[in-house]
Amino acid sequence: MATVVGDGPPAALLIHGAWQGAWVWDALAARLRAAGTLVMAPDLPGNGIDATPPEAVSLRLYVDFLSSLLENLPVKTALIAHSGGGVIASQLAEAHADRVSGIAYLAGMMLPSGTGFRTLTDELLPGHPEAAGIGPHLIWSADRLTSTVPPDAARTIFFHDLPPEDAQRAARRLTPQPEGGRAVTATLTAERFGRLPRLYIEALHDRSIVLPAQRRMQALVPGARVVSMPTGHAPHIAAPDLVAAHLLSWLVSCRMRSTTGDPT
């Protein structure tokens, strides 16, 4: 395990969402690295890149895998999570609050302890039928262990604000998602997760985690700094320069806080 030191560049661990892979971070990671940030952007196990079977995928597996990366970084590290990666980031931060400098959610699932995103969606549906998002479009395996997003639905729900060729390319790169890593709920405490600074980058035109859902999560888990982006569900792909600008200033503030011990 690396020893956490008080100096060095900001560090960030990027956590992708369901059906995705590390590739979604390529543009943003390049910009963060160019500004001097130490960046890690792994593929989560079981997302089609490795040999992890769907039945082995769970929130615990994700947290254990990411913990092994986090523990080898020499400085406190910010977690930057997109979509369903937000639940993973929250649980990882709870487990390693002493090694995490802050959490940034990009249209992410910033949920209270013990609350799943399905519960939030069910509460919103009567007044916001669009909150169903990608759910009605999913194609399930016969054993219900994995779901797949059809390319047409991916372009319409996830990538509608990208140039058509880019949207098509991104849609084709999505992989089957094990349900054991998607239908997950974090267990959090005020003493660990609750003391970390948070940034919420909301996507105003998101068709997957719709704006009412994002705003409801901000109300349920108050205290995050909020930035609005005029994008769809993937601001880090649609507007990487703007996302990088917001993140870089926040990363510096997290780094300063972690080295000075300032609780604000």
How many H/I helices? Answer: 9
SSE-based structural type: alpha/beta
CATH fold name: Rossmann fold
Q: Radius of gyration in whole Å, from Cα?
A: 17 Å
Which strand-content bin applies to the residues? 5-15%
Sheet with the most strands, sense and barrel status: 6 strands, parallel
Look at the structure and give the CATH class.
Alpha Beta
| Low-pLDDT residue intervals, each spanning 5 or more residues | none
Number of domains: 1
Helix content: 25-40%
Ends distance: 28 Å
The sequence of SSEs as H and E is: EHEHEHEHEEHHEEHEHH
CATH architecture title? 3-Layer(aba) Sandwich
Looking across the biggest beta sheet, what order are the strands in? Answer: 2-1-3-4-8-9
Name of the CATH superfamily: Alpha/Beta hydrolase fold, catalytic domain
List how many beta strands DSSP finds: 9
Morphology: globular
Mean pLDDT: 94
What would you note in describing this structure?
This protein is of the alpha/beta class and about 260 residues long. It has a single domain (about 10-260), classed as 3-Layer(aba) Sandwich (Rossmann fold). Helices cover about 35% and strands about 15% of the residues. It has nine helices and nine strands. Strands 2-1-3-4-8-9 form a six-stranded parallel beta sheet, sandwiched between helices. The chain has a three-stranded antiparallel beta sheet with strand order 5-6-7, with no helix packed on it. The longest helix is centred in the C-terminal third of the chain and has 21 residues, at about 240-260. It is globular. The model has no long low-confidence stretch (mean pLDDT about 95).
